[in-house]
Amino acid sequence: MRGYNTDRFSDKAVIYGTAEYRAILDWNPFRKNDYIPVSVDWLQVVGFVEAGRVNDTYNFDLLSDMKFDAGISLRAMAAEVPVRVDLAYGDEGMNFWVMIFQPFDF
């Protein structure tokens, strides 16, 4: 969950859900610009919410005392590489994430 520290949640059982709204912007000042060495194919703004919990076993306790966060992300496809900058807020404060490439490798 992006609104919490990376090592905040660790246990044997987990429940997690997220919802995102993604919008590709028509405005893109970086597309085929002579001053920028890398072509940026698109810019995307994303609003998201997440909910989750960990527990030592899979049971209905996973559904109680769930943690929530929400945030906004700016994403770009630069030289066929996805780049993300996320800002998320949860009960324990605010976190800033930067990701390059896909979070999952297929």
Q: What descriptors fit this protein?
A:
106 residues; mainly beta; five-stranded antiparallel β-sheet; 5 strands; 55% strand
In short:
With 106 residues, the protein is mainly β.
What features would you describe in this structure?
The protein has one domain. By secondary structure, it is mainly β. 0% of the residues lie in helices and 55% in strands. The two termini are 21 Å apart. The protein has a 5-stranded antiparallel beta sheet with strand order 1-2-3-4-5, with no helix packed on it. A hairpin with a 2-residue loop joins strand 4 and strand 5. This is Bacterial surface antigen (D15) domain-containing protein.
Question: What's the count of strands?
Answer: 5
**Gap between N and C termini:** 21 Å
Count of DSSP H/I helices = 0
Strand order within the widest sheet? 1-2-3-4-5
How does the major sheet shape up?
5 strands, antiparallel
Quote the average pLDDT. Answer: 90
Outline the low-pLDDT stretches.
none
What integer value in Å does the Rg equal? Answer: 17 Å
Range of strand content: over 45%
- Give the helix proportion (percent range): under 10%
Q: What's the topology here?
A:
Blueprint: E1 13-24, E2 40-55, E3 67-78, E4 81-90, E5 93-100
Antiparallel strand pairs: 1-2, 2-3, 3-4, 4-5
